[in-house]
Fold each of these.
Amino acid sequence: MKVVDLRSDTMTRPTSAMSQAMAEAEVGDDVFGEDPTVNALEKMAADRMGKEAALFVASGTMGNLVSLLAHCGRGEEIILGSFAHTFYFEQGGSAAVGGIHPRTLPNQPDGKLNLSDIEGAIRADNVHFPRTRLIVLENTHNLCGGYPLDTDYMKAVGDVARRHGLKIHVDGARFFNAAVALDVPAAQLAAEADSVSFCLSKGLAAPVGSVVCGSHDFISEARRARKILGGGMRQAGVLAAAGIVALNEMVDRLADDHANARKLAEGLAEMPGVSIDPTRIHTNIVYFEVKRKDMTVEELVKRLDDNGARMLPVGPGRIRAVTHYHISSDDIDYVLGVAAKILN
Ligand code: TLP
């Protein structure tokens, strides 16, 4: 049976160009800084983001954690959205490992934090308070429907941060989806950020890895943090080789994923009991709500799955579908056909 797996863009498998590059990668001990392929990937990523330096890490979670550890000391505070992946899905790692105190603010439906909320959350210099160090943003915003944060918003948050001597970290797991959707160079979108982490292993289809970008000083702190977390990966060039292919070949095509996500949303919007506004779909993540008397969301997901259309139930009444490299426009037709049979 044909299976169209829309549970996540983490399902992507390496392309044949990636497999070949991995097999042929020149490697060395990266903890000694001697893996030429890792060094090449880090240089390339830093250039793409307009930053001085970069660090290859095992995952998006590790990228965020090393960044927060590099920016903040124990007892210091970060401001972030209550739907931020870093807050919601990363086991509270920055608190557990780094003693970093999270101050959460409501995410707006488009993933933004209100500037006035940010201003209001910044701590005064007072012996009772933790010190605010960092604002954490997410671009695109996963739980807020893959919304991209634009350059104007980044500038506005940058102004607040500078006025108060704060740094900005961007969880850019899908940063290139944002850049492609907004049609701006990644470096321009990253200009206000002191650090950005992006994933190679989501829409860009590499099998493993993320990259953190920032200043030389920040990256040397992040490198120390990566080491204490056990993330010194030795001949990691075999993985970085796929990352180089990902950056060279897989960025521009993200526009296809966005078009497929919009098409999926438009099709779903026609079905009874489904609520979704397709005009809100800007990148590759589609959330929709289902209210039916004849089946629960779990039953619907099971029936979709039994018929080769895999999606993720995410909380009461809500389902997520994510488009990626292995999903074609025909696959979307197939999924819509399956959904129509079950729902109509
Ligand atoms: N997100 C995964 C799940 O953890 C939910 C997914 O399937 O979307 N930041 C953001 C915005 C993410 O969406 C993710 C992964 C991460 C960080 C963590 O990346 P990994 O899984 O590589 O640690």
Amino acid sequence: MVSVLVTGGAGFIGSNFVRFALDAHPDWHVTTLDKLTYAGRLETLHDIIDHPRHTFVRGDVADASVAAPLVRDADIVVHFAAETHVDRSILSAGEFITTDVFGTFVLLEAAREATHLKRFIQISTDEVYGSVAEGSSLETDELKPRNPYSASKAGADRLAYSYFATYDVPVIITRASNNYGPYQFPEKVIPLFVTNLIDDLHVPLYGDGGQIRDWLHVNDHCRGVDLLIESGINGEVYNIGGGNHVRNVDLTHRILELTGKTEALIRHVADRQGHDRRYSLDTTKLQALGWAPRARFEDGLAETVGWYRTNEWWWRPIKDADPAFRAYYEKQYGKTRV
Ligand code: NAD
Ligand code: TYD
């Protein structure tokens, strides 16, 4: 059996990756290490938590007593665990440094001592390039992160590279664009807007809504990571982008259409501080290995809206019943919800 450690596997992309990996690789045993922060939920792993080739460990990546033995036992580490929401990083950045930077350091230190580790996949993000006015970012472009989240991810990204360059840890770094799909926490724009609209609540559109994101279906992201485990080159960085550049205002109209609601439910609210205007990735390097995104955005978005419609059991306890989520929501949006 190939021993695969997935950190952050109870979150959005990590859980999709664990599901994908168990299905695609009958010779893999996957261990999920997750702290179960507000964003990590066992419900997200409901169908695979008891899979015979899956082990769940609750723990903090920044706690070497838990994380280091797991890294030392692994053939492959896929490190998704992070604090991930830009708005939360603007409200309070401490946890981003502790988890995204220090947590990555703890895993990399353990990786130095691992005897049979073949890959350490550092899941970085396109946000490390900062706002890209025109053209598309290449892996060799300068990193210009502009908010505490993307700066913490840039720190982790370069720290991971340094452990390749200095200690020969078999690091590959991925920089993906905005993901969408099932099990995304309803603080992020697509699930927030879809679930608000299902309930006839307003959707808070920041600023003029002209910001552009390059949407990537989470399954295409998982396929990209999987391909890199197989065929990537250690020490290299690979962009993973969906090639779907959509303005937030257009995204909002598509979601209104898919939920059958009118634009009267759009509430224009103050812009995010330091809001990155546009992200865009050049994915030639990954495409050269044989990867291409499969999901058409129109279809993927419709499917995703359908998923939130039929899986209220998953998001209602967060949105309607979790006091921590309510507290965050009110801090962020005031009375926008009603
Ligand atoms: P998420 O917020 O949905 O999930 C993060 C998971 O990490 C949760 O399960 C949480 O409990 C866990 N976690 C947080 N702190 C931890 C800690 N200290 N120890 C152990 N577990 C901890 O995030 P996501 O959207 O699935 O993102 C996963 C990764 O992908 C992140 O590294 C993120 O930076 C990167 N990424 C995300 C996107 C996107 O669009 N969502 C795009 C590019 C890259
Ligand atoms: P988000 O899903 O938070 O992802 P990121 O900031 O990592 O790109 O936001 C996506 C875009 O949607 C971003 O330009 C901010 C915008 N947005 C809103 O307009 N309103 C909202 O309530 C949220 C959460 C995001």
